[in-house]
Amino acid sequence: xxxxxxxxxxxxxxxxxxxxxxxxxxxxxxxxxxxxxxxxxxxxxxxxxxxxxxxxxxxxxxxxx
Length: 65
Fold this sequence. Notes:
single chain; mainly alpha; 3 helices
């Protein structure tokens, strides 16, 4: 069981390292900036999803509230 847990952590770290070495951080920063600007200007941010993504969207929207 411990080996399985270790493998899952290693998989997680591999994904995190791949993200850190990609240009996705620039995209995330751009999205965060756009959201910040929208909220600062009294606009709203909409989240949507289907299935599991709907649950993620609801959770993210709740975090903003």
